[in-house]
Amino acid sequence: xxxxxxxxxxxxxxxxVFVLVLGxxxxxxxxxxxxxxxxxxAAAAVVLLGSNIAISALRNIxxxxxxxxxxxxxxxxxxxxxxMIMHAYIPDLYSALGVYLALIVVNCIILGRAEMYANxxxxxxxxxxALGMGVGFTLAxxxxxxxREVFGSGSFCGITIPFISEYKISIxxxxxxxxxxxxxxxxxxxxxxxxxxxxxxxxxxxxxxSAAACKQLGCTGEGDVANV
Amino acid sequence: xxxxxxxxxxxxxxxxNYVLKQFLGICPFLGVSKKLDQAVGMGVSVTFVMLMATAVxxxxxxxxxxxxxxxxxxxxxxxxxxxxxxxLVEIVLKKYIPALSRSLGVYLPLITTNCxxxxxxxxxxxxxxxxxxxxxxxxxxxxxxxxxxxxFAGVRSRLEEANPPKAFQGLPIILTxxxxxxxxxxxxxxxxxxxxx
Lengths: 228, 197
Description:
Chain A has 228 residues and is an all-alpha fold. Chain A has helices at 3-9, 24-29, 34-57, 67-89, 91-97, 99-102, 108-118, 123-152, 175-192, 211-216; strands at residues 155-156, 159-160.
């Protein structure tokens, strides 16, 4: 497909959070404030870009049997580098994101794109795919965190909004609020795409490295590539 | 000493429940909680892997990484250790305890790249627990996961008979139900300190 289409698909048609339903853990955990969400999105995008390029460049050299451990090492190295840079230059964001920064390593989006795209396509295509997915992920996080922060804490990027902050619904910044906002947003995606948007009806398994394992458990999503 | 361990255990199970509070291990939680026997199998496997992972990563952190100033390798080392450990366990189970392998083994690949296991090992380090407390905390996290899975399996069996609006069918209504279960667990906040005093 054309380079532009490749980039765009990660933002809308195959948005990793709302369509492929991958990487749900950080989505729910760090979207309590917009700044944290943008920081996480940027970090994940950088790791995704780096690992896609590296894995695509090495795709003919890594033997198939040790594929997954090799990807994990590459991704973990990028995550460690990003962690260290954040720790040095943006320590507040580093401590706000906490353990979820290290958990980018097992983020299904990154392993999933490596497995589904980077090991079959050229470096340039993989880089564009990574950029698209990274932007899509960040936008999705931005959307969720805006809702949760504006209506949950009455602020935006830390700046209190005068009227709304008196009627804030604090539950939205807590754990249940995360589940609820995510559920409502996916329902919205379903509504606006007539049910064809979200690719996994039961739970997104497209590109998830555990798809084969899920299949053994008889988990059948509908209409997705892994036929899980 | 025993009391502080009990507090750590109960905190991990109820107050800081890994799935419902800290959003770790969401993928298996939403994917495998449909049937009760699968939910139990998954929960037990996760507990098992968490305990093993802590038992292995704690000595590595204390005797290998910290003394030589190699803490920055923590992420890479931990995830590799966990991945290889699970592979090893799968092979060992298949060969020596085939019955257990048949019932739990199928969940093991799912757990390898799961946030919950890596999360518990990293949290134990950052919380500064000693070995026994780390093991107890991992046991608690695993049991908390099991508890959440079992409860949610029950909720989902009711969801089967429900008839939500079309846009909500499938994932959205499951997430909404999860939010309500999570809300109920918030009721446990603050009881732990007073539970054993």
